[in-house]
Amino acid sequence: MSNAIPSKGKIGVLIEDHYDPTEFEMFNEYFPQQGYEVEYVTHLWGNPSVTYWANPEDGVIKNQVKVTVEVNSVKPSGYKAVLFIGAYAMDRCRYQEHVTKGQANQSPAVNFLRAALRTKGLKIGTICHSLWLFCADPSLIKGRKVTCAHNIICDVENAGGEVVYDEKKKQVQEIVIDGHLISAWHPKVTKEFMETIVQEIEKGS
After folding, report:
1. What digits encode the pLDDT tens for the residues 120-178?
2. Which of 104, 158, 163, 171 is spaced 20 to 30 A from 68 at the CA atom?
3. CA 46 to each of CA 69, 71, 73, 92, 115: distance values in angstroms, whole numbers, following the listed order
4. Which sign, positive or negative, has the C-alpha torsion 50, 54, 56, 61?
C-alpha cells in the first residue's frame, strides 16, 4: 500500500467489505512512515483477489482495496502486529458457510484470531466495532479488559469482555492495553491507536 521500503516487518490488517475508511487511510500513511509494511488479509473464497469497498459516509464511498492474501495461508507469527479494522467488516468476517450446534465459530477469520492470540509476542489491535470478531467465540474475550464503540458494548460485555469506562467523560476509555491486546474506542482516536501499536511493538514482549 506504500512505496516505502519496509525495514521493521509487516503489520497484518484483517479486512472485509464495509471497513472504516478513516482507519484505512491512516494505516496506509502512518505505518509505512514508521518503517512497517501494511498487508491486508482476508478470506478470498477461492479467488486470486477480492476488492472491498469502504463503509459509505454521508452516502459517499471514499476508497476501495484489492486484497490478494488469503487468511488461511498466512500465520500470525509472520507479522509484528495483527489489526482488525473497524466498521462492519469484522461482522462480515464471522460468517460461516456451515454451522454445527454446539460448535464454536469456525470461520477463517475467527480461526486466524485464535492463532494470533496464541502467538507469543504478537501485538493484537482492535478498534471501534472490530471486537465483534472476538464475540464470535466468548472464550476469546472473556475476562479481557477492552474498549470499543459504544453501540457494541452490550455484545462485548455479554461475551464476557470487561469494558473499561471513563466515568468523568461518560464514555469508555479511548485506549486500553491488556497484555498484548490493544483496543481503541473510535476512529476519532486512530492516531493514538496507531502510535500505541508502534510503541508496544518496539517495547517488545
Report:
1. 999 999 999 999 999 999 999 999 999 999 999 999 999 999 999 999 999 999 999 99
2. 104
3. 11, 11, 12, 17, 21
4. negative
* Cell numbers representing residue 169 in the block: 467523560
If we measure between CA atoms, which residue out of 10, 28, 24, 27 comes closest to residue 194? 27
Of 19, 20, 15, nearest to 70 by C-alpha is: 15
* Domain count along the chain: 1
CA distance 73 to 142: 27
d(CA 77, CA 146): 23
Structural domain containing residue 40: 10-203
DSSP letter for 138, please.
G
Residue with cell 478470498: 44
CATH number where 23 lies: 3.40.50.880
4 located within any domain: no
pTM of the model: 0.94
